[in-house]
Amino acid sequence: MNRKSRRVIRAMVAGFLGLALAAVLAGCTGGSGPTGSPMPTPTVTGGTEPSSGDPTQWGTYGSRAEACLGVGGDVVALALIPNNLALMNDSAGIGGLDDAIQTMAVAAPPVISGHYLQISAMVLAFGRELDTYNAIVHPPTATPDASADRQPAAASAGPGVPSPSLSASDPPRPSFDTTSFGTQLDGIKEWLKTDCS
Questions:
Q1: SS3 for 38?
Q2: DSSP per-residue string spanning 106-150
Q3: Which of 24, 55, 130, 161 is the Cys-Cys partner for 157 at CB 3.0 to 4.6 Å?
């Protein structure tokens, strides 16, 4: 991976985590509204918090309020995925992005964790498609071995060799399936609307 790719990946991950953290912190302030009245707390429309019921109803979150806050932050972070993937030139950042999605899926209430897992599968599939595309458009160059070091400098291609460029015969760059992604994200948002409003 080249230096530019690493910087882009670091910037995307930092932005991704920064926005997620900002969303979580904004929800945690519990401050007053503009009129000085307390912020309303979400009410549960589908029942009450479990006391003697299923303790895993809220995933790894301790309560409905924590689950609503955590999942709300997840939605903000997940919504950035299509833009992050559009900026990727290779699949080097896919693993870190998938790890973050998997962590969210484990923490989420079980009733919506499948949506996270579907998003994870879509991200991984896009990474594979991007690898295939790059293998066609930018085939790997032979790496010099130890015997190449003994050859005269004139035998090397050097910096004057042009890098491969896109041609009309190259396949189109893969695009992330934003329609299916939106369907999965909407499933999580629907849970928020139903269980947290």
A1: strand
A2: HHS-HHHHHHHHHHHHHHHHHHHHHHHHHHHHSPPPPPP-GGGGG
A3: 161
At position 183, the amino acid (one-letter code) is T
Give the C-alpha distances (Å, rounded to integers) separating 52 from 49, 56, 132: 9, 11, 51
| Sequence ranges of the domains in the chain | 1-27+59-138+176-197
How many residues are listed for the chain in this entry? Answer: 197
Cα–Cα distance, 23 to 39 (Å, whole number): 16
140 residue type, one letter: P
pLDDT digit string (tens) for 65-95? 999 999 999 999 999 999 999 999 889 999 9
Q: Is the Cβ–Cβ distance between 111 and 59 less than 8 Å? A: no
Question: What is the rounded CA–CA span in Å between residue 91 and residue 107?
Answer: 25
| Cα separation, 190 vs 98, whole angstroms | 22
Pair of tokens at residue 104: 């969210």
Distance CA 25, CA 183 (A): 27
